[in-house]
């Protein structure tokens, strides 16, 4: 079980690293060749596929294949999917916005570092290059807030375009109703409140991973 | 009895206040010292209310990474002697501040009062919540509102008159957690039950509605009987576990939960809302967890003497 599990996680994380590299590359190439407004047209489809594959992270956590918590994994997947799969895929008016292009770059480049780090932790264990550890626990400092602000901006800009989208209205047999536009309006207020503790948590992890003798190790390796 | 008192040594990160194993004082509480005397002393010198105080014996063994295994809890009624709880002369006792506490009874009343007030708001003032106009309420909506309020009125009365809480308290932030659970579900269920476009099951068939709610009331009555029997299980002053006998207890370990779950099932069959079913499932899950804990505890305590044929909570599945 142990070895098969490891092998599987290596394949998965390697695949996701490659997918994220491809996402980043297509963002950069479309940006340079066709301009800011065409980034979604050029790279959007690849992001959608990668995001659906990322749902497996929640499955892994729930099934005990990985050690992370299923709740946190799903919350992160849901937050990103809400913007990518539920808004950007459905609102053409936002697809050519600069916020979309910036967000796609921030998302994919952060994921490259994250998946590559996971991959090497499994393959190399404690002998993982210190500089990669440093990058993994440093790059989030600018990336997280930029990503969050872009996501927030997209939700605000989407509001007028999503009336009736993904919504269920009464009457129906289960007496259930859902107003996605109202949900987004509420989420805009809740988002930063949920996001801030996660951001601060990353700093705690950073102190744990990069503190205590990390600098010495880094110097030695240079 | 001479004792040395220390703050509990805490290795958990961010919980280093008060400092590890910090000395509080040495005290001679005299012959036959009680739990109350110890707590009174702590209250006098440090100002912690009785219910905030948790006492343990000094940890005696190390588990791993220098982390100590927690010492045994020194817990008893105020009038119990420390020597009866295994505390010896010259022992070291470790103190932990449990934080601000609130009584179970107070929490229960607040968490049940909310749904009782929130649910009828949607029924009585639809204009304030819905953009569509609503005419005269349907029979289903009227009876559902009465049933819902009656259910929580019963819970409040039981809290006041039936349940025994002794001095039990919980951390004050549980109040917020519990209230948001009950209040939010009450608002969601009521919003859809009293919606102008609400569709009653079977077109609001009267016989069906009456049958469902009558059964729901029957289950509530069963739940009430179980609660009274549980209260009378121990005579005043008695402590320790006892095997409940008679009525539904002959077949199920926690029939009070069985009745509660089936009561909500009947309410949902009568009203048919997605959120109502979600509320039932969330509650049922929690009650199954509790029931399993109780079943295990009873089996562990009584071994072969605990009747084997009893289901945990949901016959024939569990």
From TrEMBL, chain A:
<keyword id="KW-0443">Lipid metabolism</keyword>
<keyword id="KW-0472">Membrane</keyword>
<dbReference type="GO" id="GO:0030148">
    <property type="term" value="P:sphingolipid biosynthetic process"/>
</dbReference>
<dbReference type="GO" id="GO:0102158">
    <property type="term" value="F:very-long-chain (3R)-3-hydroxyacyl-CoA dehydratase activity"/>
</dbReference>
<feature type="transmembrane region" description="Helical">
    <location>
        <begin position="178"/>
        <end position="200"/>
    </location>
</feature>
<keyword id="KW-0812">Transmembrane</keyword>
<feature type="transmembrane region" description="Helical">
    <location>
        <begin position="139"/>
        <end position="158"/>
    </location>
</feature>
<comment type="pathway">
    <text>Lipid metabolism; fatty acid biosynthesis.</text>
</comment>
<feature type="transmembrane region" description="Helical">
    <location>
        <begin position="7"/>
        <end position="32"/>
    </location>
</feature>
<comment type="function">
    <text>Catalyzes the third of the four reactions of the long-chain fatty acids elongation cycle. This endoplasmic reticulum-bound enzymatic process, allows the addition of two carbons to the chain of long- and very long-chain fatty acids/VLCFAs per cycle. This enzyme catalyzes the dehydration of the 3-hydroxyacyl-CoA intermediate into trans-2,3-enoyl-CoA, within each cycle of fatty acid elongation. Thereby, it participates to the production of VLCFAs of different chain lengths that are involved in multiple biological processes as precursors of membrane lipids and lipid mediators.</text>
</comment>
<dbReference type="Pfam" id="PF04387">
    <property type="entry name" value="PTPLA"/>
</dbReference>
<dbReference type="GO" id="GO:0030497">
    <property type="term" value="P:fatty acid elongation"/>
</dbReference>
<keyword id="KW-0275">Fatty acid biosynthesis</keyword>
<keyword id="KW-0444">Lipid biosynthesis</keyword>
<protein>
    <recommendedName>
        <fullName>Very-long-chain (3R)-3-hydroxyacyl-CoA dehydratase</fullName>
        <ecNumber>4.2.1.134</ecNumber>
    </recommendedName>
</protein>
<dbReference type="GO" id="GO:0005789">
    <property type="term" value="C:endoplasmic reticulum membrane"/>
</dbReference>
<keyword id="KW-0456">Lyase</keyword>
<feature type="transmembrane region" description="Helical">
    <location>
        <begin position="44"/>
        <end position="65"/>
    </location>
</feature>
<dbReference type="InterPro" id="IPR007482">
    <property type="entry name" value="Tyr_Pase-like_PTPLA"/>
</dbReference>
<comment type="similarity">
    <text>Belongs to the very long-chain fatty acids dehydratase HACD family.</text>
</comment>
<dbReference type="GO" id="GO:0042761">
    <property type="term" value="P:very long-chain fatty acid biosynthetic process"/>
</dbReference>
<keyword id="KW-1133">Transmembrane helix</keyword>
From TrEMBL, chain B:
<keyword id="KW-1133">Transmembrane helix</keyword>
<dbReference type="InterPro" id="IPR039357">
    <property type="entry name" value="SRD5A/TECR"/>
</dbReference>
<feature type="transmembrane region" description="Helical">
    <location>
        <begin position="179"/>
        <end position="195"/>
    </location>
</feature>
<feature type="transmembrane region" description="Helical">
    <location>
        <begin position="273"/>
        <end position="291"/>
    </location>
</feature>
<dbReference type="InterPro" id="IPR001104">
    <property type="entry name" value="3-oxo-5_a-steroid_4-DH_C"/>
</dbReference>
<dbReference type="GO" id="GO:0016627">
    <property type="term" value="F:oxidoreductase activity, acting on the CH-CH group of donors"/>
</dbReference>
<feature type="transmembrane region" description="Helical">
    <location>
        <begin position="247"/>
        <end position="267"/>
    </location>
</feature>
<keyword id="KW-0444">Lipid biosynthesis</keyword>
<protein>
    <submittedName>
        <fullName>Very-long-chain enoyl-CoA reductase</fullName>
    </submittedName>
</protein>
<keyword id="KW-0472">Membrane</keyword>
<dbReference type="Pfam" id="PF02544">
    <property type="entry name" value="Steroid_dh"/>
</dbReference>
<keyword id="KW-0443">Lipid metabolism</keyword>
<keyword id="KW-0560">Oxidoreductase</keyword>
<feature type="domain" description="3-oxo-5-alpha-steroid 4-dehydrogenase C-terminal">
    <location>
        <begin position="169"/>
        <end position="316"/>
    </location>
</feature>
<dbReference type="GO" id="GO:0042761">
    <property type="term" value="P:very long-chain fatty acid biosynthetic process"/>
</dbReference>
<feature type="transmembrane region" description="Helical">
    <location>
        <begin position="107"/>
        <end position="125"/>
    </location>
</feature>
<keyword id="KW-0812">Transmembrane</keyword>
<dbReference type="GO" id="GO:0016020">
    <property type="term" value="C:membrane"/>
</dbReference>
<feature type="transmembrane region" description="Helical">
    <location>
        <begin position="207"/>
        <end position="226"/>
    </location>
</feature>
<comment type="similarity">
    <text>Belongs to the steroid 5-alpha reductase family.</text>
</comment>
């Amino acid at each position: 079980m142990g070895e098969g599990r490891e092998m599987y996680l290596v394949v998965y994380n390697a695949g996701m690293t490659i997918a994220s590299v491809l996402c980043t590359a297509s963002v950069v190439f479309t940006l340079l060749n066709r301009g800011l407004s065409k980034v979604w047209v050029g790279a959007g489809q690849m992001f959608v596929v990668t995001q659906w594959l990322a749902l497996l992270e929640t499955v892994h956590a729930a099934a005990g294949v990985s050690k992370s918590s299923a709740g946190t994994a799903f919350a992160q997947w849901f937050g990103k999917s809400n913007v990518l799969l539920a808004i950007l895929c459905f609102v053409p008016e936002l697809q050519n916005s600069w916020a979309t292009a910036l967000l796609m770059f921030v998302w994919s480049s952060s994921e490259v570092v994250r998946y590559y780090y996971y991959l090497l932790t499994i393959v190399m264990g404690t002998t993982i290059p210190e500089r990669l550890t440093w990058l993994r626990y440093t790059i989030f400092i600018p990336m997280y807030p930029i990503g969050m602000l872009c996501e927030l901006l997209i939700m605000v800009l989407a509001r007028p375009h999503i009336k009736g989208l993904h919504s269920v209205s009464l009457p129906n047999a289960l007496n259930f109703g859902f107003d996605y536009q109202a949900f987004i309006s509420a989420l805009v207020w809740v988002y930063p409140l949920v996001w801030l503790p996660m951001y601060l948590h990353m700093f705690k992890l950073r102190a744990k991973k990069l503190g205590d003798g990390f600098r010495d190790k880094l110097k030695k390796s240079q | 009895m001479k004792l040395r008192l220390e703050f509990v040594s805490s290795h958990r990160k961010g919980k280093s206040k008060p400092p590890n194993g910090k000395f509080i004082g040495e005290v001679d509480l005299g012959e036959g010292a009680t739990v109350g005397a110890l707590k009174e002393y702590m209250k006098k010198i440090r100002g912690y209310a009785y219910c905030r105080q948790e006492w343990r014996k000094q940890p005696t063994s190390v588990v791993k990474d220098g982390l100590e295994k927690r010492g045994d809890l020194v817990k008893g009624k105020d009038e119990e002697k420390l020597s009866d709880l295994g505390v010896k002369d010259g022992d070291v006792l470790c103190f932990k501040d449990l934080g601000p506490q609130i009584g179970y009874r107070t929490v229960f009343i607040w968490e049940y009062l909310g749904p009782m007030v929130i649910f009828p708001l949607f029924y009585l003032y639809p204009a304030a919540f819905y953009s569509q106009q609503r005419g005269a309420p349907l029979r289903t909506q009227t009876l559902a509102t009465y049933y819902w309020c009656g259910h929580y009125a019963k819970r409040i009365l039981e809290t006041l008159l039936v349940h025994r809480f002794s001095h039990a308290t919980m951390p004050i932030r549980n109040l917020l957690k519990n209230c948001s659970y009950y209040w939010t579900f009450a608002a969601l269920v009521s919003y859809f039950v009293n919606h102008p476009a609400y569709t009653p099951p079977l077109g609001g068939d009267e016989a069906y509605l009456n049958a469902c709610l009558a059964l729901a009331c029957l289950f509530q009555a069963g739940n009430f009987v179980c609660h009274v029997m549980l209260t009378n299980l121990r005579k005043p002053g008695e402590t320790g576990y006892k095997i409940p006998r008679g009525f539904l207890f002959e077949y199920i370990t926690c029939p009070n939960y069985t009745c509660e779950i089936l009561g909500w099932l009947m309410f949902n069959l009568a009203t048919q809302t997605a959120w109502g079913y979600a509320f039932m499932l969330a509650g049922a899950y929690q009650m199954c967890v509790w029931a399993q804990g109780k079943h295990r505890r009873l089996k562990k305590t009584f071994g072969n003497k605990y009747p084997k044929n009893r289901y945990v909570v949901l016959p024939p599945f569990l």
